[in-house]
Amino acid sequence: MLDISGSMSGDKMEKMRSDAKELIRYLLSDSSNRIALITFEDTATIVSEFSNDMDDLLEKMNALTVTGSTNYNAALLNVDQIMSGYQKRAKS
Questions:
Q1: Looking at CB atoms within 10 Å, which of 7, 53, 55, 92 has the fewest?
Q2: Tens digit of pLDDT at every position of the chain (92 positions)
Q3: Are the CB atoms for 79 and 38 separated by under 8 Å?
Q4: Could you give the CA distance from residue 17 to residue 13 in angstroms, rounded to a whole number?
């Protein structure tokens, strides 16, 4: 869950992007891991469903831009949605 609201402009966004990319590389060094990307500002967006495609996830991180204001509730609703789908697939 990545905050891309206006409060993240400048160094904050670059630090978040750098840290998130480092986390992606670390977690996906184990091919059984999956990562989903959700951004939020005024609204929340599922940028990527759970994936282990490191190149695609890093590309999507590079494309993020700062916009809007902060709406944590919308982001958490998307987290709930994506986790529900993940849990259903894991049980299958």
A1: 92
A2: 899 998 899 899 999 999 999 999 999 999 999 999 999 888 888 999 999 999 999 999 999 999 877 767 777 787 888 888 766 666 65
A3: yes
A4: 6
SS percent in the chain: helix, strand, coil, step 5: 55, 15, 30
- The predicted model scores a pTM of 0.76
Both tokens assigned to 56 = 């695609």
**Of 73, 15, 82, 18, which Cα lies nearest the Cα of 47?**
82
Q: How far apart are CA 63 and CA 17, in angstroms?
A: 10
